């Protein structure tokens, strides 16, 4: 996909809506209730992994009612379109001292699990008061490391998906739903 792609070609790559906006919003509300129940009034720090989780982060933080701080970090594991690389590099770190925080990681998708398991290792070493991981999507069939989130909103088959923060070549993050990407469209 390049920046001179026609709108017809762009739209053709949105193959099929897998999870509607309404389904996502309902599931986010349920997840926020779970966070509220776990922390029961105790302040938390939501940490989102950019860029993919930015939309999910915004919706989660609008729905939780415990006192909430937010922080962002960037990790790189996919370098181009649909090809996965084994490397995980933290390219932008958070500034908070985690010893003072109950941490909730907000992630877009657990695919092979490599990115999140590496990030979790690094953050747990900083001795947070408690630690939970929430992912919007889970693709368990693709897992190469032993990792599971504490809360997972949707389990999906081995499709490459776009929308609601997830991209292909940096496009489609602004779709309000999750769709299957059409890899065959020219
Ligand atoms: P991992 O394979 O679990 O390490 O996933 C790393 C990252 O790859 C995720 O956080 C996403 O940003 C990206 N990713 C994995 N699967 C998809 C997908 O189907 N669509 C878009 N991005 C994906
Ligand atoms: Mg991501």
- Main sheet: which strands, in order across? 4-3-2-5-6-7
Number of strands: 9
Which CATH architecture is right?
3-Layer(aba) Sandwich
CATH class: Alpha Beta
Total number of helical segments?
Answer: 4
Overall form = globular
Report the biggest beta sheet as strand number plus sense, adding barrel if it closes. 6 strands, mixed
Mean model confidence by pLDDT: 92
CATH topology, anyone?
Answer: Rossmann fold
> What's the end-to-end separation, in Å?
9 Å
Secondary-structure element sequence? HEHEHEEEHEEEE
Poorly predicted sequence stretches spanning 5 or more consecutive residues: none
Structural class: alpha/beta
Radius of gyration, in Å, reads: 16 Å
- The fraction of residues in strands falls at 25-35%
Provide the helix percentage: 10-25%
Keywords:
single chain; 186 residues; Rossmann fold; six-stranded mixed β-sheet; binds inosinic acid; binds magnesium ion
